[in-house]
Structure formats: structure tokens, C-alpha cells
User: Fold this.
Amino acid sequence: MVNCITLLLPCLLVVLPICHGKPVQLDSIKRMIQIIRKTIDTQIEEYSTEVNVSFKIPDCVPGKQPIQGLGSVAQSLRGFQRMDDSLQVLSAQLKLHLSSLSSYLERYMASLQCPTKEPASFEKLDACLKDYKAFSITLGLATLHRLKEYTNKLVLGLDTLKTC
Assistant:
């Protein structure tokens, strides 16, 4: 009996430190995503009231496709970040909020045990950005409008998004 306990004790000492972590609460992550979305909307509204642009947004701009799961959302947010890297239309504060939204979404995916995927290629988006280079300011403003629509769709469907 003593030998069994002696053998079991080292195993427990190895396993117990691994098990002490507290699971991430999904509701708190959802709440943070909603708060960040409201902040992004407010900042875009403030910016949009200064400049009113009517422009047909090209299909290559992220966010037009329906939300098909958490992976598609993460890909679209990466696309918006990629567009900003090229167009540099987002303020530093808005860029930070978009990055935070992506981070919370990744935590949400991790808590649902979604497999991590390699980011998809942005060749089509890069080609589109080259084509519209002369209209970068207008495209940037139109992209802000699309980002606002997309984050609103995201929050409305957040409770139904359970697929990776």
C-alpha cells in the first residue's frame, strides 16, 4: 500500500501544477468583444461625420462575405488590419481597438478549443489595393464603413457562433 502511494505521489506533483489554471469565462470575453465593438463604432462615427463619402466598395474588401464561423471572422479581421497597413487610414487608437478585438476573438476561439489555422493569403487583397492606390483615401473611408457593418454583424451573431 505504501509503495502505491509512493509511486502515485510524484505523478500527482507533476500533474497538479498543470491543473491549477482557471478557465476563461466565455461571457466575459463576449462582453469585452461587445464593448470594443461599441468603441470602434463610436470612433468610426466621429470620423465619418467629418467626411461623407459615397463610394462603391470593391468586393476584395473584407467583411462582405457572410460570417461562417469564428475562423472566417478572424480572417476578415486580419484582412481589415492588412488594409490598414497599406492604406493607413485608421487612427492609432482605432488600430489598437481592432487589434484588441482580434485578440479577444482568438481567446474566444481557444476557449472553444478551435484549431489554430495558418492565415490565408492576401494576394487578392494586395492586388486590389494596388488597383485602387490612386483612390486610397476614398477606399480607406469606405473600408471604415464596411468595418463598422462587419463588427455589428459579428456582435449580433456572436451567440450563434459556436463553429470554428
Residues 112 and 162 are 8 Å apart (CA to CA). Residues 11-18 have pLDDT under 50 and may be disordered. The first helix runs from residue 2 to 15. The two ends are 47 Å apart (CA to CA).
